[in-house]
Design goal:
Bound molecules: S-adenosyl-L-homocysteine
Helix content: 25-40%
Length: 444
């Protein structure tokens, strides 16, 4: 049995998607924070279990060729980036490997494309949600804790958001505001419009109207200033009620030639230029022919479906989404973009009315699809299902079920919407085997 605090010299052989270097110590898999594939290092075991160990790097004897200077004083204390200490080329390789292994674990021998990226690895995030401490400190959580590390300017974010954050931070410290839980900011990358949403335990506090007025007057770009009330003791950031204090209840942005209204409660991808590339691939995989209708499940404010509808002369688009404000946005977004044959329903995607159509797009949250929805999609005999996913593990799990039900998996296309973090987006197409066979061997 290995002993805690013992020291070993090891060669690191991999990095996992949490950014830990991986090696073996007397055959036991060991995770080393900050270590990189190829490093030779002296490590100290800080946790020993029967199946794995966790170690700290004591001394880097020979650095890996993949290493770079992290350029961020908060790395790796802040839980945001996990790959800041390796070259971006190597990060893309790691992400492709992560997707490949997710499919392998699900029993699928999938073909994985190289990671698509625009190689913009700083300033790409147009949405931030900073936790706020009781003394007004604003920043990010230290990895695996709820301690806040103050963060002056995060390299991943749109710089305009830093100035607003700093202004709010100074104000709440000066005015000893203690009821704020998060500062949620979003910026339209194409329009520059900014939304400020304070997430607070209370609907009002001393100084709120002054703060609102000062932010809006100082920062012209702010078009929507809101307060969201969350008094529940959970990890969910946003509460149910949002009140608009100044400006409009939305910001607008442009994406792939479409204009979108986005409310504070609506989902909108955080990386604008990569989203265009992702949606273009989704559109290509949908393979819609003129006049074919399609369904967009988990449609948010309608972005994927409307971008595709604008480019293809489709018969009809039906979208389903659970957040009412996002559905309101989607309906208006269809009008704004002159798309008449679109309808949007607010509800659970698993209860969506499915009808025979050219294609169904699904873009669920990290937990993936329900078994019920997969069964119903297969039952409705949908020919092509384009699956957009931010979680390779649940994507692979769900693809395995579709394959069992007679679907064929396309190549898997990873898109790096989140450079430097452990996350990677993917899109695949699942098509009915029978339709392809029918094409080759006509039944009649
Ligand atoms: N396709 C959109 C949104 C994807 S994010 C885009 O690209 O912008 C996933 C969306 O699923 C979110 O908008 C979330 O509110 C929604 N959602 C979560 N659970 C849902 C459910 N059970 N039924 C329908 N929509 C759901």
């Amino acid at each position: 049995m290995l002993k805690k605090n013992s020291i070993y010299t090891v060669k690191i052989t991999d990095i996992n998607n949490l950014g830990y270097g991986v090696c073996r110590v007397e055959g036991i898999v060991t995770f080393v924070a900050g270590a990189v594939t190829g490093d030779e290092a002296q490590i100290k075991l800080i946790k020993v279990t029967k199946s794995y160990c966790v170690a700290r790097m004591e001394k880097l004897i020979l650095p890996s060729e993949h290493r770079i200077d992290p350029e961020c004083p908060l790395f790796p204390k802040c839980g945001g980036c996990v790959y800041r200490h390796v070259s971006y080329d190597y990060e893309k390789e790691l992400k492709r490997g992560y997707v490949e292994s997710a499919f392998r674990k699900a029993g699928i021998d999938a073909e994985i494309a190289g990671v698509t990226s625009d190689n913009k690895i700083t300033g790409y995030r147009n949405k931030v949600q900073y936790p706020v401490g009781k003394n007004g400190e604003i920043g990010y959580y230290r990895t695996k804790t709820h301690d806040i590390i103050e963060c002056e300017s995060c390299l991943l974010e749109e710089p305009v958001l830093h100035d607003i954050k700093r202004f709010i931070s100074d104000f709440i410290k000066e005015n000893t505001v203690s009821c704020l839980r998060h500062i949620y900011l979003r910026c339209g990358a194409a329009t520059g419009e900014v939304m400020v949403c304070l997430v607070s335990e209370k609907k009002d506090f001393n100084g709120l109207s002054t703060l609102c007025n000062e932010v809006c007057e100082r920062f012209d770009a702010v078009k929507c200033f809101a307060i969201n009330v969350n008094d529940k003791d959970t990890n969910v950031i946003l509460g149910e009620k949002t009140y608009i204090l100044r400006g409009r209840p939305y910001i607008e942005d442009e994406l792939m030639g479409c204009r979108f209204r986005i409310s504070p409660m609506s989902f909108y991808q955080v990386n604008h230029s990569m989203t265009g590339l992702l949606y273009s691939k989704a559109a290509e995989l949908c393979g819609l022919k003129e006049g074919e209708s399609f369904i967009d499940l988990y449609c948010g404010c309608g972005t994927i479906g409307l971008c595709i509808a604008k480019k293809t002369k489709t018969a009809e688009l039906s979208g389903v989404e659970i957040i009412p404000d996002a559905i309101e946005n989607a309906k208006i977004n269809a009008e704004l973009n002159g798309i008449e044959n679109a309808s949007f329903i607010c509800g659970d995607a698993s209860d969506a009315p499915l009808k025979k159509c050219g294609c169904v797009i699904v873009d669920p949250p990290r937990k993936g699809l329900t078994e019920k929805l997969i069964a119903e999609l297969a039952e409705a005999d949908i020919e092509r299902i384009v699956y957009v996913s931010c979680n390779p593990d649940t994507l692979a799990r769900d693809c395995a079920v579709f394959i069992e039900k007679g679907y064929q998996l396309s190549k898997v296309y990873p898109f790096d919407l989140f450079p430097r973090t452990g996350h990677v987006e993917n899109v695949v197409c699942l098509s009915r085997k029978s339709t392809q066979e029918t094409k080759q061997f006509p039944v009649n």
